[in-house]
Amino acid sequence: MLVAAKAGAAWAHRDLWRQFAPAVAAYARARGSLEPDDLTSEVFLTVFDRLDRFEGGAAEFRAFVFTVAHRRLVDELRVRSRRPVPDEFSAESDPRFSDSAESEALDRIADREVVHLIEALAPDQRAVLTLRILGDLSIPEIAAIVGKRPGAVKALQRRGLEALRKKIRPDRTLLPRADD
């Protein structure tokens, strides 16, 4: 498929997009991108533009895609830190509104708690774990993306997982937070 994509075959580009775009969007969403779909599109525009210079197989291509995704995300976060984006009012995102108590409880448990757990990690731990889990990348691939040695990436992964373990009960439920 990579050979065909490098030759410009539209079907190969489409198949690469379908294979990798969901994981890239999930990575961007988990790391706090405001527009994960836009970021994913930018990543693939860059990947397809640089495809003629790419060397390697499937594993190297996956690392290449997530390297571009990581760099685009860092750029977005840097720009946002300099120029905060005001939130527009949306009735759907208004915390005072919910469809039902059951819906609110399920949403709160499912999404907010997971995001809270991930956000509680140190930024380097969060980057390593999201690349490892959502990107399905190896330690050496992550090390190349984040610019650290493989041993440092292993340590960040271990410390991040330990921090998550401390927040989850042995019966796999979340420990209550102090603000609940």
Can you walk through the features of this model?
It contains 8 helices and no strands. It is globular, with a radius of gyration of 19 Å. The protein folds into 2 domains: 84 residues, RNA polymerase sigma factor, region 2, helix turn helix motif (Rna Polymerase Sigma Factor, Chain: A), CATH 1.10.1740.10; 71 residues, Arc Repressor Mutant, subunit A (Orthogonal Bundle). The chain has 180 residues and is an all-alpha fold. The longest helix has 25 residues. The model has no long low-confidence stretch (mean pLDDT 84). Helix 2 crosses helix 3, helix 3 crosses helix 4 and helix 6 packs across helix 8. The N and C termini lie far apart (50 Å).
Summary?
The protein is mainly α and 180 residues long.
So, CATH architecture of the largest domain? Orthogonal Bundle
Integer average pLDDT: 84
Please give the share of residues in helix.
55-70%
* Shape designation: globular
What CATH calls the topology of the largest domain is Rna Polymerase Sigma Factor, Chain: A
Summing up helix and strand content along with how strands pair, one would put the structural category as mainly alpha
What is the CATH level 1 assignment of the largest domain? Answer: Mainly Alpha
CATH superfamily of the largest domain: RNA polymerase sigma factor, region 2, helix turn helix motif
Question: What is the C-alpha radius of gyration, as a whole number of Å?
Answer: 19 Å
Beta-strand residue fraction:
under 5%
What is the tally of beta strands?
A: 0
Distance between the ends = 50 Å
Biggest beta sheet attributes? none
